Amino acid sequence: MPPIVETAPVPPRGQRVQETIVQLRARILGGEWPVGSRIPTEPQLVTALGVGRNTIREAIRALVHAGVLERRQGSGTYVVSVDELAPVVARQLTDDRMTEVVEVRRALEVEAARLAALRRTPGDLAALSDALAAREAAWRGGRVNEFVVADAALHTTVVAAAHNGMLAELHASIGTAMRSTVAATMGEALVPERYVDHSRLVAAIRAGDPERAAIEAGAFLEPPPRP
Length: 227
Hints:
Elements: H1 13-29, H2 42-49, H3 53-65, E1 69-72, E2 76-79, H4 85-92, H5 98-119, H6 122-141, H7 144-161, H8 165-173, H9 175-186, H10 199-207, H11 210-219
Antiparallel strand pairs: 1-2
Helix pairs in contact: 1-3, 5-7, 5-10, 5-11, 6-7, 6-10, 7-9, 10-11
């Protein structure tokens, strides 16, 4: 008589979806899929996580609804935030709160620049160089939308170089608001008087000078005077 093989109970569907959401979020928070990157395809996720397609679809749908992921027709699904706070911040963004956004950015990015100068790795420095080059190329090309994205990417790269997970999450939560303030400042065209050099900030981080890095980060994040 063949031996009896006991099989592990299959968890309920709802539980599998929740566990899959946790796994997806862990990969996002761990930096495997950074903000702005495209996540693997559905078949790849099925293989990687060992669950069915329907479970993957429901988990992704939940994260899209939460504002963590975004589906782009014909392109795939992208990470747009590391947490659910970003869409909440975005809903609060109005023209009369732009100054508050700049003040929050200053509070986060000045400290991020200081920490980045102390903690940056060779990989961080390479990423900063690439991000700065992309920002400069977008400016030279006069492409407003591309410049706004590239500028935000450079600031995000500085924050990443600080190697403080909570700081990175807080900064990511204002990503949409940050891009909106930059777009409002630039207007419909890139004109010389609106150009702000960021090379000195990158140089200070590269040199390992935390005080200079903090000063440079704060210099172009001074909020306009309140009426």
